[in-house]
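quick one before i forget lol
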Amino acid sequence: MGIDWFEVPNNLEVYLNTKSQEHFQETLIAQYRDLIHDAVLESETEHKTSLNIGKLNSKLKVILKAAQYDGLQEKEIGQLIDEAIPFTKAA
């Protein structure tokens, strides 16, 4: 019952690939978080009292398509949008 040294590099390679993919995914999500934040800022009115919803919606559609092309799920992008534009109940 010794160590099969021929298996260790394969397991290490799988581990490193997994970590690399996780890091790539985290970096990609961070980039899209920034893009969404920028879209919100660019959609604010001059006095920053409200949002131009049409402009924001247009920007978010482009971001969503790009994110899906990059392999992110719509659910993940939805969460990022929710973080950037929290739902507020009308009083």
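fyi The chain has a mean pLDDT of 83.
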